[in-house]
Fold this sequence. Notes:
The chain is of the alpha/beta class. The protein has helices at 4-11, 67-79, 110-120, 122-134, 152-158, 213-226, 247-265, 316-322, 331-336, 342-353; strands spanning 45-49, 83-89, 138-142, 163-164, 174-175, 183-186, 277-278, 287-288, 296-297, 304-305, 362-365, 372-377, 383-388, 404-409, 419-425, 432-439. The strands form four sheets. Strands 4-3-2-1-14-15-16 form a seven-stranded mixed beta sheet, covered by helices on one side. It starts with a helix and ends with a strand.
Amino acid sequence: MKNIMKLLSALFVLIFLGFFASCEKANPTDTKINPFVNDRDERNMIVIISDIHLGADLAYAECEENLPALEKLLRQIKESPNVKELVIAGDLIDEWFIPATIDPYQGQDQVNFIQRVATTNKGVFDLINNIIQEGKIRVTYVPGNHDLTVTEESIESLLPGINQARDPMLGLGTYSPVGYPQIAIEHGHRYNFFCAPDPISNQDIAPGTISPPGYFFTRIAALHVAQGYPAAIDILPNVTPNTNGDISQDLLYAYWKVWEKTLLKFSINNRFDEDIIVTNFDGFTGSFSVNDILPYQTTPGGLIEVNLYNSIQDTWEERQTRNGVAVHIPVVRAISKSADEVESSEQAKIQYFMNPNSNKRIVIFGHTHVAKMETSTNHLGQKTIYANSGTWIDENPISSTNMNFVVISPQNAYINTQTLVKLYSFQNEVVKLVDEESIRF
Length: 441
């Protein structure tokens, strides 16, 4: 039940994307490395963690075995005399990874779902609430794609007093810690064709929806896992390029090719015309079939059509504008690179470092589940640092590390020190330094 990252790595790197024991081992405070202390008598450290993916039901939640380790790390953060802020950079809650045949809200609503998540993961939420209530460490939440539609009110009901960094568009946010405008922290799904909010498609079917096609992919992928990775019982209908088509038809064919690869790899024990995807979520009601999502063609070489997300290939420009993308990404690139985790690194450079309207020198994303750190230079030739905060899901075969987090130790304004950015792993409940870089603003 924990192999979703194999799924997510195939489509999003976005997305959505190794195995660590969670039995009692050495307390992290007993390890040789304590990442939450410095040599100064001040609170200045900023901890970034993301992609925890807390579910409402441990029967299919992505993060179950790693929960005790996460609780231990949160205790260490809470006890640190030097941590100033904890930033949760998206996908704290998972409304997406739910097998397609299950009603996500069980006939209730988001408020009820959120409370079930809190009950299922009580230890984690108790610790975060303790940190907030103690008042020594600021806790900030930034939305991700798996908690895209989780409202500000829902987060506040779980974590009273938490700071929320939100854009006007629901499901998005970029955060610069107070006093550090050169730092940008966001989940990173804003730049992914399959994961960015889509307030344009399906409005006639689900008024007000913002869920992108990645939502339906993840529901199908979760069913593949829940069914025990079955062989396909149905044949994927073939679609060929429209011989008389325009650029829109070419783009829809490219969109089809992504779905084709996905469904061939993540097969399900259902026919594609069965109404198995239960929604009652984000404006959608009732159930849908796989065929409702897939582009189709009645005549080889003829017109390609699609039911859900009709014309999505033509609305990417407007979608980027509504989502506040600073430097627009060509739709061909957005579709073709949607499964490439390197694209997130590239977008950090394009959107921030090479953008003459940006002053950011440190950018932290989550989303890809691939913890990494890279340096480059910006449009002024100054050093920049990009880091990805990885994930806390139980199994993550697309990365050599897991249970990751980033710690930023800002420079001292009065001493010639550097701002330190360190990437850590808590695999096997042992703190390990994965990478580190420094910079001075």
